[in-house]
Design goal:
The protein has two domains: about 1-225, Metal-dependent hydrolases (TIM Barrel, Alpha-Beta Barrel); about 245-289, no CATH class. It contains eleven helices and nine strands. It has helices spanning about 1-10, 30-45, 60-75, 95-105, 125-135, 145-150, 165-170, 195-205, 210-215, 275-280, 285-289; strands spanning about 20-25, 50-55, 80-85, 110-115, 140, 175-180, 245, 260-265, 270. The strands form two sheets. It has a six-stranded parallel β-sheet. The protein has a three-stranded antiparallel β-sheet with strand order 7-8-9, with no helix packed on it. Strand 4 (about 110-115), helix 5 and strand 5 (about 140) form a beta-alpha-beta unit.
Length: about 290
């Protein structure tokens, strides 16, 4: 699958940016030689590849995490982790990432998805951990659909906890926070789709996010937060006209009424049809106004 995904990334270049991550259990990285071989193979497989791992209290191993980050550093790779996907206050994944990055002087970007356990920790501990995260090149990604469906889940019982990480508190500290989708329409999560605006709509309701358009739309737009350096802000002179236009939406109800959509690549419509009113020449009265 790995080389096939690279071919797809090349075929879709300019339309979809596909990044590849090897989601390997943390326990495999306990073998230092395996960690180095895997990092070497990932790095050699071409651009858009990240070293990844699944970090959970059931497989927690600080030495394995050290080897993972050392291998990534040795081969100049960024890292993407499924981290602390549980409501266990004792989960150590994110804290371990902070400690290991600090100890190694890790120079790349580490993306930590889920980090649900932050919501289960005592506030003082969680806030101190977020303060430490803010000093490092760490991006947090919340997955509203998957987290809501899987966290605090017991058959026949209505969940009491929302399962979402501390997105507001992270944002207040300047930590890059993204909203996205993980498993959808599979045995883990039979509902949902890979629609960023669906994730934002659900995230806005679950996390009670105020002003989604003005304050949180960047949580589904800032792909550069997955890399090492911030990208150029959109809609600046000379920037590519890569846009999604929502003719029926407005800033007050966003992201509701997000259909239909008009997708532009380099200013050219590639999906959807512009509304007729947009193509009509303005009348003299409209121009005068």
């Amino acid at each position: 699958a790995w080389p096939v995904l690279r071919e797809l990334a090349e075929d879709w270049q300019g339309r979809v940016r596909l990044e590849r991550v090897n989601l390997s259990p943390l326990t495999l990285y306990a073998d230092r030689d395996w960690a180095w071989r895997t990092a070497r193979d990932v790095a050699a497989s071409g651009p858009g590849a990240r070293l990844g791992g699944f970090v959970h209290s059931t497989n927690w191993d600080p030495q394995a995490l050290t080897y993972l980050l050392q291998a990534a550093q040795a081969f100049d790779l960024d890292v993407d982790l499924h981290c602390d996907e549980e409501l266990n206050a004792g989960a150590q994944g994110l804290a371990g990432v902070v400690a290991t990055m600090t100890g190694l002087g890790f120079e790349g970007r580490v993306v930590c998805g889920h980090v649900c356990a932050l919501a289960a920790k005592p506030e003082a501990e969680a806030f101190a951990l977020l303060d430490a995260v803010a000093r490092l090149a760490i991006t947090l990604v919340a997955l509203p659909v998957t987290n809501l469906l899987l966290q605090d889940a017991t058959a026949g019982r209505t969940p009491r906890q929302r399962g979402l990480t501390l997105v507001k508190e992270a944002r207040e500290r300047g930590i890059p926070v993204l909203l996205a989708s993980d498993n959808v329409q599979d045995p883990f999560c039979p509902v949902g789709g890979y629609d960023p605006l669906e994730a934002l709509l659900l995230g806005a309701a679950v996390a009670q996010l105020g002003q989604p358009f003005d304050a949180w739309s960047d949580a589904v737009c800032r792909a550069d937060w997955l890399g090492r350096a911030p990208g150029a802000l959109p809609l600046t002179p000379g920037a590519p006209a890569d846009l999604v236009l929502l003719p029926e939406a407005d800033a007050w109800g966003f992201p509701s009424r997000s259909q239909p959509r008009l997708v532009l690549r380099a200013g050219v419509p590639v999906r959807g049809t512009p509304p007729a009113a947009w193509l009509r020449a303005p009348s003299p009265e409209e121009l005068a106004a």
